[in-house]
Write a structure and sequence with these properties.
Residues 8-75 form the DUF8081 domain. This protein is of the alpha+beta class. It is 27% helix and 17% strand. It has one domain (8-77, 86-95).
Length: 99
C-alpha cells in the first residue's frame, strides 16, 4: 500500500491456507486479507502460526505488483530459520558465489 498508511495488508495465498491451520481458519472466518499495524506485526503473526511445524512466512509484494496488498502469507519448502531477518529480503545475487 502506498497511501502513506502505516498499516501492512497481507493476503493469505493458497499455499499458506493449505499448509497452515491458523491461516486456513483466518481465511474461513475473515477472508483472504488481514491488516496489521506494521510489517513486524504481520511477521510476528506468521511466526506464531508456524509454531506447530506448519511453517508460513510473510513475503513482501514486489513494487510492480498491482494489487493493493503489501505482502503475502505463503508456505513452501523454505528451510526453517532461513533468512528470518525482520527487514531483509532475498536478492538474486545472494544465491551466487563470486567468480
Amino acid at each position: 500500500m502506498s497511501d502513506g498508511s502505516p498499516a501492512y495488508v497481507v493476503e493469505v495465498k493458497d499455499s499458506a491456507r493449505r499448509h497452515n491451520q491458523t491461516a486456513a481458519e483466518w481465511v474461513a472466518h475473515n477472508g483472504r486479507r488481514r491488516t496489521f499495524p506494521s510489517k513486524q506485526a504481520a511477521r510476528s503473526w506468521a511466526r506464531q502460526a508456524s509454531r506447530d511445524g506448519e511453517q508460513v512466512w510473510v513475503q513482501d509484494a514486489v513494487p510492480s505488483d498491482l494489487s493493493d496488498v503489501d505482502g503475502y502469507l505463503v508456505a513452501g519448502d523454505r528451510p526453517p530459520g532461513e533468512r528470518d531477518d525482520e527487514d531483509e529480503q532475498w536478492w538474486l545475487p545472494d544465491f551466487f558465489e563470486p567468480e
